[in-house]
Design a protein that fits this description.
The complex is a heterodimer of chains A (300) and B (286).
Chain A lengths: L3 H17 L2 H32 L21 H8 L3 H32 L5 H13 L2 H14 L7 H9 L4 H12 L3 H9 L4 H12 L1 H17 L2 H6 L8 H10 L7 H31 L6
Helix pairs in contact in A: 2-14, 3-14, 4-7, 4-8, 4-11, 4-13, 8-11, 11-14, 13-14
Chain B lengths: L1 H20 L2 E2 L7 E2 L3 H6 L3 H32 L6 H9 L6 H11 L6 H8 L13 H29 L3 H9 L4 H12 L1 H16 L3 H6 L3 H4 L11 H11 L3 H29 L5
Antiparallel strand pairs in B: 1-2
Classes of the chains: A mainly alpha (300), B mainly alpha (286).
């Protein structure tokens, strides 16, 4: 720190400078806006173009030079994709799988997060580092043994491998961590008072921690819902029957041209459909999701 | 507690088993036979594996700095008290939670050599058009993958950086301003050093993400890598794709596991290296 005199003169100098050139901050500000908005436009461009393609009649996007906006709007692509390509049914399948994944994560993260945050037991710190390691361990290292286990249990071509790991907590490590960190912020006094009143651990969890920790638990569930909805590798691995496909698997089959080459307009419509649930969740719970992604105290 | 132990057992068994399988020849039906280091040596002779590691290294070399740098710049700009920050941040963040298949459809359409937006824009400024994802050059395909992955991941980096920015005490910046430091100077001398824990986190997470890349390749190859199990095009192969085709396509589960572990070892080495270098430039409070 410099002396107070120098400080005063310095701050006066700063003020003078900005008084002399009042246009400068304004200029700078609009420059920042320009850059940020241009970036945002670039970010949104793929979405907008896909939306624009999806409402054109077949072949409507294949023109040189390109047309930015469709000359006529039709929804027939959406109908075709939903019925003929089975995306309607796949959407229901995906909703079921992703909801189970979300519920499983909520249950596992509440229970395990509670156990982790509250109980003292030997090796607690070690377990904690192991959980972090589990989050960092590449799925590829485990995928083959896990696949072989599920096939031994004859769970192939069912939704079991896609949902049960969320209930067991092996697929919801991040959610458990999130909820645990949130539970740690709940004052110990609450628990002590409840214990004096003769409440058992389960009652305390249900009556105190779950209601208070609901934002974190719901966030963990929503994140799991999104993860499961977006997942394509595991359904590709575990599901064989066409009618059991998830939306992402359906899109993959459309891209691969399983039923002959798929016109770009149909692909675009499929892409938009698969975005809708994500958009809804995002709009409803944006703040929670963003904070959840950052993780509570994950840094450092 | 029993539940926690159960979780660890559920995780631990596959890890150990997977490590064991990497030293065996195993087709999924017959019992595995011990082949010693054979699989591990094969990695160094197999041209497909070598391409896979080369491709992913190139991809990471572009993606990791690009995502970290762009994320930092955008976060710094958004942090300047703009209006509608939440809205802008939402737009930057939306790709991060979008499904890769949907994103793949978008990018394949954008980079279509004939009808795509990218070539249309390039020709508008008199630049040559490219084949992009259809190019036989491995680095062109991987370049588009790196760009798409950056587009999808940068919002996540922005959010992490913005959280870091919020933790920087305002008094520090005020004091610097009072001392006559220019904004540029306090950015380099205060903000960026204090933000280094976030930068480190983004770097490590990006490195891990790049190494495990699978969905983007699947999506941007139009699902090709799941179809052409035997004859994967050279430019599209990365370790995870190879693992899938060797293991689940060809039934070489032993070798596939070896690839998984080789990948893990390389990435772990990089993360440890980053952590070693951490103390040189990452500044922690207290």
């Amino acid at each position: 720190m410099s002396g107070s005199l120098a400080q005063i003169s310095a701050s006066r100098r700063v003020r003078l400078r900005s008084e002399r050139r009042p246009w400068r901050p304004m200029f700078e500000r609009s420059g920042v806006y320009l850059v940020v908005l241009a970036g945002a436009f670039l970010m949104a461009l793929p979405f907008l173009w896909t939306l624009s393609v999806s409402v054109r009649p077949p072949g409507g996007s294949e023109s040189v030079p390109i047309q930015w906006l469709p000359s006529s709007v039709t929804w027939s692509e959406y109908q075709t994709v939903l019925s003929q390509y089975g995306l309607g049914r796949f959407t229901l399948n995906s909703l079921l799988v992703a909801s189970l994944a979300g519920l499983g994560t909520m249950a596992a993260s509440a229970l395990l997060g509670y156990a982790w945050a509250v109980f003292e037991f030997p090796g607690r710190r070690l377990l904690f580092s192991l959980l972090l390691l589990l989050m960092a361990l590449p799925g590829q290292v485990m995928i083959i043994p896990v696949y072989l286990i599920w096939s031994k249990l004859s769970a192939i071509d069912t939704y079991v491998p896609l949902t049960v790991p969320f209930f067991l907590g092996t697929a919801s490590a991040f959610g458990i961590f999130l909820v645990r960190q949130y539970f740690l912020t709940i004052p110990r006094d609450f628990r002590d008072v409840a214990e004096l009143d003769g409440a058992g651990p389960l009652t305390i969890l249900l009556r105190i921690y779950m209601p208070l920790g609901l934002p974190a638990i719901v966030t963990a569930g929503l994140l799991a819902f999104i993860t499961s909805w977006n997942e394509v590798f595991l359904p590709l691995l575990y599901l064989n029957t066409q009618s059991k496909s998830t939306v992402q698997l359906g899109l993959l089959d459309m891209m691969r041209g399983q039923f002959g080459t798929t016109p770009p307009e149909l692909l675009a419509a499929g892409s938009v459909i698969s975005m809708i649930p994500i958009l809804i969740v995002f709009i409803v719970a944006q703040r929670w999701l963003v904070n959840g992604f950052v993780g509570t105290g994950l840094k450092g | 507690l029993p539940f926690l132990v159960a979780v660890l057992v559920l995780v631990g068994i596959p890890v150990v088993w997977s490590a064991y399988l990497s030293f065996t020849s195993f087709d999924g039906f017959n019992p595995p036979t011990w082949t010693g280091l054979h699989n591990w040596l094969r990695i160094f002779h197999d041209p497909a594996t070598l391409s896979a590691f080369r491709n992913v290294a190139f991809l990471a070399l572009i993606f990791v700095p690009l995502q970290t740098g762009l994320g930092l710049v955008i976060a710094l700009l958004l942090h300047r008290g703009l209006r509608a920050v939440a809205f802008l941040r939402a737009i930057y963040f939306l790709p991060a939670i979008s499904p890769w298949m949907a994103v793949g459809i978008m990018w394949v359409a954008l980079f279509n050599p004939e009808y795509g937006v990218v070539n249309a824009l390039l020709s508008a400024i008199h630049m040559p058009a490219g084949l992009w994802l259809l190019s036989p050059n491995w680095w062109v395909f991987q370049l588009v993958v790196a760009l798409a992955t950056t587009w999808k991941g940068v919002g996540y980096a922005v959010v992490l950086f913005m959280a870091g920015l919020q933790a920087i005490p305002q008094e520090l910046l005020d004091a610097a301003k009072a001392d006559g430091a220019s904004e540029w100077r306090s950015l380099w001398r205060i903000t960026i050093p204090l933000l280094s824990p976030s930068t480190f986190l983004v770097l490590v997470l990006s490195t891990i993400a790049a190494s495990q890349i699978f969905d983007p390749i699947l999506a941007l190859s139009g699902g090709g890598v799941a179809t052409n199990i035997g004859g994967l095009p050279n430019q599209q192969v990365v370790p995870t794709v190879l693992l899938y085709s060797q293991g689940f396509g060809l039934g070489h589960f032993g070798y596939a596991n070896t690839i998984a572990w080789a990948l893990f070892i390389v990435v772990a080495a990089f993360v440890i290296l980053q952590r070693r270098l951490e103390s040189r430039w990452v500044h922690y409070e207290r």
